Amino acid sequence: MLSTILSAFQVADIRRKLAFTAGMLIIYRLGAHIPVPGVNVNAVNAVQKQFGGTSILGLLNLFSGGGLGRIAIFALGIMPYITASIILQLLQVVVPSLEKLSKEGEVGQARITQYTRYLTVGLAFAQSIGYVFLFHSFQSQAGESIISKFDAPHVFLIVVCLTTGCVLLMWVGELITQRGIGNGISLLIFASIVARLPSGIQSWWTTQDQVFKVMMPFIVLAIVGGIVFVMEGQRRIPVQYAKRVIGRRMSEGGQTYLPLRVNMAGVIPVIFAASIMAIPPTIGQLVHAHWGTRVADFFSPNGWHYVVGESLFIIVFTYFYTAVTFNPVDQADNLKKYGGFIPGVRPGRPTAEFLDRILARLTFPGAIFLAVVAALPVILIARTHTQLAIGGTSILIVIGVALETMKQLEAQLMMRSYEGFLR
Q1: Torsion (CA) 331, 333, 336, 337 in degrees, nearest 10
Q2: How confident is the model at residue 421 (pLDDT cuts 50, 70, 90)?
Q3: 392 touches 380 (CB < 8 A)
Q4: What is the strand order of the sheet 234-241 is part of?
Q5: DSSP 4
Q6: What is the distance, to the nearest Å, from the Cα of residue 198 to the centroid of all Cα atoms in its chain?
Q7: What does pLDDT average to over the chain?
Q8: According to the model, what pLDDT value does residue 167 have?
């Protein structure tokens, strides 16, 4: 890993991409500290405890990089875009026109991306309105109004600023993907979580439980090693290619393999599950009624209801996203088209059934592992009564994004290593 990073800095093109990515992330972190106009900063500081710990607001504040707790320009973070992506992914399964678009290559994907952007703007606007009323409800706790003037023009100004900040973040993420090192949206979430690492280290160092203080580094190393092992684990299916006659030439047959990863969905199911589970408690926080408070407490991130719900969603989304990204029927057709076959398995439908059976067996342990890692911090909190600044979902996202980023760097270095040979 260190050699890859050092080699990347020696290539001018990659060095420019890394500098561009770093610049975009710095802009993101600056925007997470600039409050929107019309907000009383002193009153916001008085209710900071509402956005900490393992409450739902603390979880949303984590994904916004602390911007929500400061009511900053980037308070919404990138979560409206993630939610819009989830909705479009689900609609591709049930809406035939969207499913057709998804199979039209780059043109279809560009159209779906445009729909995702429009939906992101709508979700960000609606979410901004909800947050403004939520901030206004903290007036009794702050002792003074958080919104300086709670009238239609000032509320509209704050809503527009928050929505614009989310749209700007979406554009920044796409710029990082196009002109940076890739995975722009994931890197924004990565930066939001890593920004909380100092407070997490401080919480661990100042804890009164000495046994927990000693054991925590070993637990973290074990979790990190397990996540890397599962995410990098794969089943290699041998593929044999027969000799083919193309024009006047005969291509030699060869043997290769089809890699099927244990966790083909990556960290996407974890992000999906966290987004879905954040909806009920957010609505409960916005509704000033007894049932709203009960809903928010019922789905609190440090409760077993949240753990069970998130684990089920992680398992379901792991199977769903794996089915979306890897189609056994298409893979079998491609192998048959190019003269490839799996030894001992007939081409066509038997190959598709074989791949589907192998994929189902691989996906199950990967989904269970993701659910266990996401639930582990809640168990530690219940046993040690110590608040953790970063949960299992955050650890999965950080490690998954780091691995994907390293693969992007290695791929770009490999392309440049063959530059002299191709000349």
Answers
A1: -110
A2: very low
A3: no
A4: 255-261, 234-241, 340-341
A5: H
A6: 21
A7: 79
A8: 92
- Measured CA to CA, the distance from residue 111 to residue 104 in angstroms comes to 10
Q: Which residue, 388, 366, 369, is CA-closest to 379?
A: 388
Per-residue pLDDT tens digits for 202-238: 777 777 777 777 877 888 888 888 888 888 888 888 8
Between 209 and 349, the higher pLDDT residue: 349
The closest of 67, 275, 21 to 172, measured between CA atoms, is 21
Q: Which helix (H) or strand (E) holds 244?
A: strand 244-246
Q: What is the largest CA-CA distance in the chain?
A: 85
Classify burial at 107, counting beta carbons within 10 Å of its beta carbon; exposed 0-12, middle 13-18, buried 19 or more: exposed
Q: What does the alpha-carbon distance between residue 267 and residue 318 come to, in Å, rounded to a whole number?
A: 9
**Identity of residue 51:** F
CB count within 10 Å of CB 94 equals: 8
Evaluate if residue 122 carries a pLDDT over 90: yes
Map tokens 């199911």 to a residue. 269
Question: Residue 165 has which token pair?
Answer: 């900040």
Query: Does the pLDDT at position 163 exceed 90?
Result: yes
pLDDT at 418: 46
More confident residue, 389 or 297: 297
Reported as a pLDDT band with limits 50, 70 and 90, residue 171 is very high
CB 393, CB 301: distance < 8 Å: no
Please report, as a single letter, which amino acid is at residue 270.
V
For residues 290 and 2, what is the distance between their CA atoms, to the nearest angstrom?
54
Give CA separation, 169 vs 39, 85, 197, 205, 407, in Å: 21, 15, 22, 33, 24
CA distances from 95 to 83, 87, 91, 120, 289 (A): 18, 11, 6, 19, 37
Show Cβ contacts of residue 195 under 8 Å, excluding neighbours closer than 6 positions.
29, 32, 65, 66
d(CA 323, CA 354): 15
Cα three-residue angle 167-268-411, rounded to 5 degrees: 90
